[in-house]
Structure formats: structure tokens, C-alpha cells
Prior knowledge:
The protein has 1 helix and 21 strands. By secondary structure, it is an all-beta fold. The chain folds into 2 domains: 3-172, Immunoglobulin-like, CATH 2.60.40.1740; 182-316, Galactose-binding domain-like (Jelly Rolls). The strands form 6 sheets. Strands 4, 7, 8, 10, 12 and 13 form a 6-stranded mixed beta sheet that branches. Strands 14, 16, 17, 18, 19 and 21 form a 6-stranded antiparallel beta sheet that branches.
Amino acid sequence: MSFIKSISIILISGTLLAGCKEELNLPEQPLSAYIKVYMPQAANGPVTYEFSTIDTVTYSIIYGANYGGAGYPDKDISVKFAIDAAAVDSFNTANKTNYLLLPAKSYTMEESAAIIKKGELSTPPFKITVATTGENAPDDLSKTYLLPVMIQDASATVNPVLKTHFCIVSIIPALFDRNGWNIIDYSSQESSGEGPNNGRAIFILDNNINTFWHSQWQGNQPPHPHHITIDMGTEKRVSGASFVARQGVNAGRPNEIQIFLSDDNTTWTLAYEGTLLNDGASQKRFFQKAMSGRYVKLQINSSYSSNLSHLAEFNLF
């Protein structure tokens, strides 16, 4: 049996797969105890990745395997990678979290097998590409997801402490560009009583929280429900909506709301039903499941302390 007193230990870099070496004096022990394959990204502990729904950017996670031990491998080492779905429950239990497994449709592994070549210290770096928009994106962007990337097997001993890279994935919604959106229907609007730059439905799309739509109050006061219908111009996959209430006026802010989507402005599907806070800050509401449509109808079924209603800004993501 081979023994060693002085050994070169591979130091793990947080971002690179390649390593450097440092001489350490150790007690006599089998050389084989130091020869292990590991995932360098796992050395950092769980890592949080915050991606966006901006579809002009490709979002990815780096993974790979390194060789740790004395010298360099004297033969090729085969490595297999996989997603350890079973590790999500144990991770949540240990860390008192409630992350969901990132859906299989929402990521693509570049490689599931690789080689640490003879005389080298690592596999090439590989990418997991994460879909944040379109049909492959997670249906519920309000959730935080976990993706445990592991070394499933290798032709050399795997370090059990550093075999899994726990990736915590959050997808931050980016609001749609509303250029080209048009108001095509509304239950009522206050065309003159709020002055030339307020009252009409178009003001919920003007990027100005100090202007607002108001249901009609001059001459007639139509009751709830109030609604506004928007043509977005093209079909979009929608995960939720954003609201900014009229500033400085509490009575009349939307309370109970519904959001409907349609492909043809005729057949409507309920995408969201819930409530808004009586608050002037921006509020986001996530759909339970992303839906597609070209037309969106915001329906206000009740308002705070009034039969009238008003709203400063409305958008989707």
C-alpha cells in the first residue's frame, strides 16, 4: 500500500474549474484517501441565481467536475452528471425552506457525461440553460426553485461532501413594453371632470403614476363592476400583473379584481382573481399558471369605500 507524508492538495476556486496546488505536511495515510472527484461549485454552498424574464438574455448555471489528489490522474476519469430531484425534500427539511424543484421543461443540461482526461485536473465547464420566458418557463414565477446538480457517478471515488451543487433559482419578472398597446373598451371613464390629463382610460398606460383613469362620476355614476380592455397587439405569455393605485386618494382604489385573457376579444379565460391593497405603492399579482393571450380585460368588482374607482398604472409581465 502506498503512503504519503507530503501531498499536493487541489485548492478549489469558486469560479474556475482549474486549481492551484499548495504543499502541506500530513500524517502517514493511504494516498488513495486523497484521490477524489468533486464538483467545485459545491464548495460555495447553496448559490442563489436571480434571473429575469427579459428574453434577449440567455441565463445559465455553470457545472463540471475536478480531480483532487496527489499529482494528476494517470488515466481518464469518466464522470456522469444528473439532477438529484430527491435532494429537494432533504434540503428543505435541513434548511427549513420550501423550495420547489425547478421543472424539467425549464432547464437544459449541456452534457450529462464528461471525461477528466489523463494528466488534467478537470472536465470542461458546462452550462445549464434556464428558460425564463415562453412555454418552457416555470408556470408560477412567484415561487423560488431549487436545482440540485450532482455528480451521479465516476470511475474514481467521488467526494460525498462536494458532489452536489445546490442552485436556488428565482426568476424576477420584467414588465412588458407597452408600446403599441391600445385601450379598445371600457365600462366608463371620466372624460372631462378630472381635467385634460386625467380621468380617461388611456392614462393607465402612460408611465406616469401621477395621472389616472377614473370611472365616470359627472352626469352619471355607473356601479361596479368596472372594466378596461386592452389590445396588446401580439399574443404574449403572461405570468402576472402590476398595478399602481391613484396617488393620495384612498377611497375608490380597486379592491376585488379579476383579470381575463383572450386570443380574439370574444372568448375570455379567467387568469387571476384576488384583491389589491389600499396602497399607493406598486403591487404585483402572480397568476397560478402562466397563460397566453393578445387581449387583456381588467375587471374591478369592488373598490375601497366607494362605488367609483380609479387606477394610475396597469401592466403585465
